[in-house]
Amino acid sequence: MTQRRRSDYMPINSKECERFVSDATLSGDILRRLSTLVQSASHMLVVMAPDRTITWVNRAWEERTGYTLDEVRGHNPGRFLRCPETGPEVGPTLRTAMEAGQRTQIDMLCAAKSGERYWLNIDVQPTYGPDGALDGFVAVHTDITGRKSQEQAALAARNRLQATLSALPDLVLEVDSKGHFTAAHASDPDLLTTAADALIGRTLEEVLPGDIAALGRQIMAEVDAQGLARGHRYRLDTKKGERWFEMSAAPRPPDTPDRETGYILVARDITGLHQAEDRLREANTRYDLAVSGSLMAIWDNDIVHRQLYFSPRFNEIIGGPEGDWYGPTDVFMDMLHPEDRPRIEAATQHHLATDEPYNQDMRIRDMRGGYVHARVRGKAIRDATGKAVRMAGSLIDITAERQAEDQARRLGVRAQIALNAGKLGVWEQDGASGMVSMDATLGELMHRPEIADRLLSPEEAYAFTHPEDLDMVREHLIRLIRGDVDEMHSEHRIVRPDGEAVWILAHVGVAGRDASGKPLRLVGVTQDLTGRKAAELRLQEALEAAEAASAAKSQFLANMSHEIRTPLNGVLGMAQLLELTGLDERQRSYVETIRASGRALQSVIEDVLDISRIEAGKLTLSPGPAHLADVISQAIHAGASDAARKGLEVHTEIDPALDAPVMVDGARLAQVLTNLISNAVKFTHEGHVAIHARALSSGRIRLEVEDTGPGLDHDMQLRIFDRFSQADMSPSRTHGGAGLGLAIARELTELAGGRIGVSSEPGKGALFWVEQPAPAAKKDPASPEPEISGAAPAGPLRRVLVVEDNPVNRSVAAGLLTEAGFQVSEAGSAADALRFLREGGVDAALLDLHMPGMGGDEALRRIRSGEAGPADLPVFILTADVTREARERLKDAGADRFFAKPVDAHALIHALRARLSQDAA
Fold first, then answer.
1. Alpha helix (H) residue ranges in 722-878
2. Torsion of CA 829, 830, 832, 834, to 10 degrees
3. Which end of the chain is less packed: N or C, by CB atoms within 10 Å?
4. How far apart, in whole angstroms, are the C-alpha atoms of residue 344 and residue 346?
5. What's the CATH superfamily of 6-150?
6. Distance (Å, rounded) from C-alpha 447 to C-alpha 449?
7. Quick one: pLDDT at residue 38?
8. Cα separation, 843 vs 799, whole angstroms
9. pLDDT digits over 152-173, tens only?
């Protein structure tokens, strides 16, 4: 509806009409022509009285409405124009304006007399008389049906366009030639970076990120050049997060002559498509990786055109060139082993006919002239009618598997032969049911052939186990089933029907476990141990016999040592007593010969005992802090008299780096050096013997004993450290000895983690060397006992009780002590000694270890317990038992000192005086 104000138009008043009529009267011709013009006008004219009733209409109005003037005169026009579809606002609008004497204009949907609907534009203008009073209305009715149809069509088109745009998920943008937004539509406003109404008039660069604005300009240029642009993708951050769009564009023609051309840009949200494409690419990548990284070849057979494709893995399997394999299906069929082809063709046709699973093993000729084994799986692909048009699947190389199966079969045959040859019985137990099956070999071993290949319950199987072993066997099996161990090995007995117990060795393993860890199957191998047990019994008996023989040997050596040392102690002791009497030079020479022979015999005894300990593995070292200078001095002292007698010079050279104490077994190292020095002195008749000591790296030392003797040939050097080996093995040799010294030296050196050797040439002397660990000691060695003068302690004579069952040795000890200035009492047994001690008056006691009845160790324990005199009485043990065990036992029992027979009288008297001097102090 369009309403206009009265002031918008020039009013028609009565005076003007009178003038017009007067002028027309003056000219009747003009009046007639005016009437004709009004009647023939295309516009419809209606003249109304002030009460809005019709007074006159022209012919055009009559023709359009279908009503005549006579029919309408005196009536309101609305009576003949209104229809049900007429807008309800039309009547009130016209009435209000006309009552106010105002001009108004409105569009109205009308109905003709025939019922036809048409649109009128009604322009109503009031008319006034000469006095200015309202004298009626003139209305011009214009038929606008055509225009309204166009407007409605345009509106419908706009509505359809709006509906279409609303239904589209796309962004639709209009841009002018300079890149200004002229319109924008978005079904989802969150996809816009700027609100739609805020876009209008702004440029691409003002609204979009630089790269996307540049893309927009590129698209506009592409439209200018090609008339269309498509498929341009870009990423944009929106309120909905990161989104991907694809933009297309087309030119926008001008809709009005004065409007320039522009561009319509359509941006579609393809985020889902982009993500799907990413997933597809990832899936394809994974597929390619899976296919290329696996041992599987993919195949696709075009059944219609009989063309077959294989992925590159197939060429790898058959040794062909790199890349895909593609060719006629018949070529592949010709590559099949002649024995396999009929079966494969039949299986393929069967699958195509039934769709049953296709899983075939086949042999395929490779490029090397042989055949590979392959496992092929496939599935038919059908068209809409159900016809198979393709068949695709996978192929894997199972050549190694088949070779392993063949190898397993061969091994199985060999294993069965071995089981049969070794009489090894095999049994299995099902993990689910617990039922047990045994083979014929096991049935034969049990003397129960009826159980072979028959299922037995667990109770029946356990019944064959010896009752005393049953709990142990069950415990082993429980631990195996529980998963504590992977295998079980058990030696136990089974019982045969006649009651005979037979030892067997059972090896049991688990053949697979289910998801819960429960064994699927137990497999056991059983071996008859009857022969082995008999051999073990014989071996045990032989071992016991050997141990008894070794013990007897050790006991024999101990007894022999005791039996030899005891009289030797008497011989050497008497020689020492004899030396104390007035002797001439010849007699002293005799005595020295006796003593030298005794020492030689003692050395042989010591060497034999050391070899015995080495053989028994009972010789051990006791490393401790020691000064090498003291060790070397001790070793030189042992051979000093022989060297002096032969006029040999003995000198030493010690590396200053070895001044500090080192960790070694000083006594045993001195023994090694003593043997080397004694050996050098023994074979050297003139010249010298030199001892060198120097430090090596990593806490090791090297000791050398060099002589100017006759030297050694190569063969002698190879066996010089063997037992009972000497440089001169002839019966007429001039040098004594048992040939054990160097052998013992080697054993002691190796026991210390070192090595020993010799360098020599005949006629040029010899150089014996020792290398062994000697790390720096963390503390100094114990200080030696203070020197005590040889004189007896001042004051009254000290009484010493000598307890010895051998009269000779008792007499020797008593004589030596008497000569040294002691008072001596004697006892022939330990019991007599205890009685003597209870009486008092004894300052020290010498106890023999081995005596009839009560031994010296038992007597010592009683003395220390206070049963016989003072518990702290100085007690020295004299014994022929020189083992470490004896020393440690007596030390623990409280002995002050330990002296091995034959006793060194000077050492004994010196120690005794030192001990008594301490008490006196």
1. 741-751, 807-819, 830-839, 856-864
2. 170
3. C
4. 5
5. PAS domain (3.30.450.20)
6. 6
7. 60
8. 5
9. 877 777 677 666 666 566 788 8
| Residue recorded with tokens 């943008």 | 173
Query: What is the rounded distance in angstroms from the CA atom of residue 574 to the CA atom of residue 603?
Result: 19
Helices 856-864 and 830-839 pack at an angle, to 10 degrees, of 30
pLDDT digits (tens, 9 = 90+) for 727-750: 444 433 444 445 688 888 898 999
3-state secondary structure of 875: strand
- Is 24's pLDDT higher than 50? no
Residues 6+ apart with CB under 8 A from 428: 436, 437, 521, 522, 523, 524
Query: How far, in Å, CA of 510 to CA of 16, rounded?
Result: 129
Q: How many Cα atoms are found within 13 Å in the side-chain-facing hemisphere of 769? A: 11
Q: Which helix (H) or strand (E) holds 232?
A: strand 229-238
The token duo for 84 is 């049900």
Distance CA 208, CA 895 (A): 108
799-920: what CATH class? alpha beta
SS3 content of the chain, % helix, strand, coil (to 5): 45, 25, 30
> In one letter, which amino acid is 386?
G
User: Domain residue spans in the chain?
Assistant: 6-150, 168-276, 295-403, 422-528, 620-773, 799-920
Span 168-276: which CATH code? 3.30.450.20
- Per-residue pLDDT reduced to its tens digit, 775-785: 998 877 755 44
Which CATH fold topology does 295-403 show?
Answer: Beta-Lactamase (3.30.450)
> Does residue 267 or residue 453 have the better pLDDT?
267
| Cβ atoms of 140 and 60 closer than 8 Å | no
Give which of 481, 759, 752 is closest to 624, Cα–Cα.
752
> Helices in 255-398 by DSSP H: which ranges?
271-293, 312-318, 329-335, 341-354
Biggest alpha carbon distance in the chain?
212
Identical fold between 295-403 and 422-528: yes
Phi–psi pair at 162, nearest 5 degrees:
-65, -40
Token readout for 674 is 């003593």
- Domain 620-773 CATH superfamily: Histidine kinase-like ATPase, C-terminal domain (3.30.565.10)
| Per-residue confidence (pLDDT) for residue 432, from 0 to 100 | 84
CATH class, domain 422-528, is alpha beta
